[in-house]
Amino acid sequence: MAFQLIVLYHHPEDVVAFDKHYDEIHVPLAAALPGLRAYTVQRPVAGGGQRPAYHLVAVLTWDDEQSFLAAMASEKGQAAVADVGEFAVAGVTMTTGPSASVL
Known about the structure:
The protein has 103 residues and is α+β, with helices and mostly antiparallel strands. 38% of the residues lie in helices and 27% in strands.
């Protein structure tokens, strides 16, 4: 069963600076995580005049929990985690767990 890390980025004060750092610095760090099978990014859009709950949502997928844990313990994993504090000053919510397609 696949294992995912979902990162929900709260709305930054400086959207331009956040997006630039995320796209140019953080994406290459995260994309280099060992064993990573998929990495998707969503920038939610407003619906019905409401502000989306999050500025950006990232979903990273590994084959299993052991692969995820090894990636996070690696030098590249440590660098990616440390980088979050450099640009996501408004905060993040992270969740991990097994995932399965239902369709």
